Amino acid sequence: MLKLNNFFLIMFMFMTIYMSMISSSMMFIWVMMEMNLLMFMPMLIMEKSYSYNSLYMYFIIQAVSGSMFFVSMINIYFIEIYYNYVSLFKLIMFMSIWIKLGVWPFYLWFIKMLNSVSWMIFFLLITIQKIIPFMVLSIYNMNMFSMMLIFVSSLVGCICVINEFSLKIILGYSSMNHMSWMIMAVMLNHNLFLLYFFMYFIISFILIMVLYKYDINWIIDLKYLYNLNSMNLFIFMNIFIMYMCIPPMMTFILKFFILSSLMDIYMIMFMLLMMLVSLISMYFYLRLMFMGLMFSLPKMKFNLYYYNNVNFMKEMNLFMFISMFFMIYMLFFFY
């Protein structure tokens, strides 16, 4: 349950986000972004399990990226009339927002931080704290540089979960993957981004509330969730199916519209690459669900030693890899 202090801080954070959304001044947006940071820092300080080293790291990274944004914004405003360095400072501003979002190649600090906070702070970091940086990215158009960063960030978000057991790390990399799609959406269609972010916000909220309620932090802890009742299993499976973005879920429709927007601007190869990454991410979601189900079966006696055994993990990966190719085959067979 939220403490009263945290509640007021979150309300002020929402106010800064709203003020940023209705403003067209980059200077005002920067001020709101820094105020949002000041509202968030006390919540981190009040975290009992939070490491002060991570707190200092977060503050320094946000301060440096905010300074980069401010300096580039001022230079764009004053130099545009006289010099031809505007594109350079726009690139610096773009990279400062990339740092704030915590996507590739500036993702390690973000994953480390997510693994050291409570589920409530985790939820705020992957949702609310991303809104203002996304609004800034809406001024940019898709180009080869941004497409490369989006693709690699999405791919890294899928690959890095191999042999990870912490659900916070797994969901952190999953947020990188979804952020890649949201960055595409905000550059292509603002309304499409709002729909995608709203769906991601709701799904993440439900999932994290379930994990928080039952104190689930590791894959092996999923057996406690599965063993409670069939409704918990049903909710958990549906949430992950929505994360996988497969039909007939709303998330699939939103991804379909994003891919259609890419086709409209003739980015066919980039569209195919993002579809491939989506299939890879589907494999890891299925792997996670399968492992949780295996540990929930009462007749199968697993222990931590066998769970951490490398051969066992290889067998699990091989099984899910074969299953993924079977699904791809069935997809082409029916369509």
From TrEMBL:
One GO molecular-function entry: NADH dehydrogenase (ubiquinone) activity
Catalytic EC class: translocase
Tagged with keyword Glycosyltransferase: no
Membrane-protein topology: Multi-pass membrane protein
Any one GO CC term of the record: mitochondrial inner membrane
Residue ranges occupied by any NADH:quinone oxidoreductase/Mrp antiporter transmembrane domain in the UniProt entry: 23-280
Catalytic activity: a ubiquinone + NADH + 5 H(+)(in) = a ubiquinol + NAD(+) + 4 H(+)(out)
Name under which the protein is recorded: NADH-ubiquinone oxidoreductase chain 2
Gene name, Swiss-Prot/TrEMBL: ND2
